């Protein structure tokens, strides 16, 4: 049965002490989770090693917030898939709207990174999202599906189950974000699933993990997780302190207790 993924990216926050403190506080709770829950954390690069050594990799997945599509060479400032693995990372986030807007990430580079991650057995976590303007213009679906299709260009059937898509509406992310309602999120997830079905057939598409991210908090997480096409949440601010993250895990865990 499909797992419910509950994860956070710390973005460019924390130092080594607070990274360790987060891991130590989360660790005891992680060991008692329902096996169908998949926790994950994506620290900044310098803390991937220490955070991944704090956890059993079979329980908590640790990832990187970006990655180069090349293995090695003259790519100053970049981090390769081999390095991510070497540090204990197994997931790679790519295409986050902040990277698209501020660091030149494009649909095409996301596609190259998807292939690089898959070549090295890493899980690509592809972020896609519509802007506020696209929402107002009524073209959100087209915008998001285009990002999904280019990200998955030439990804073969046998590799597709390893790819995770996170729908992160730009208008919902961060301090000024307004969270998507569970209905809005589900409607986009349904559209993404339908596009995936057209590309890969129902069985493979239905087996894929689709996460929602954008101002997920302790009040809206439960309803979001109840939506049929939402297979987990990808969380920023609410999960940066260990207690917020643990409470999100409790909410997700309660879905399996009845
Ligand atoms: C994000 O930036 O991807 C995100 C989900 O952040 P937040 O939960 O803080 O809106």
UniProtKB/TrEMBL annotation:
Protein's cellular compartments: Cytoplasm
GO terms of molecular function: triose-phosphate isomerase activity
Pfam families: TIM
Pathway(s) of this molecule: Carbohydrate biosynthesis; gluconeogenesis; Carbohydrate degradation; glycolysis; D-glyceraldehyde 3-phosphate from glycerone phosphate: step 1/1
CDD domains: TIM
Similarity annotation: Belongs to the triosephosphate isomerase family.
Protein name listed in UniProt: Triosephosphate isomerase
Organism: Vibrio amylolyticus
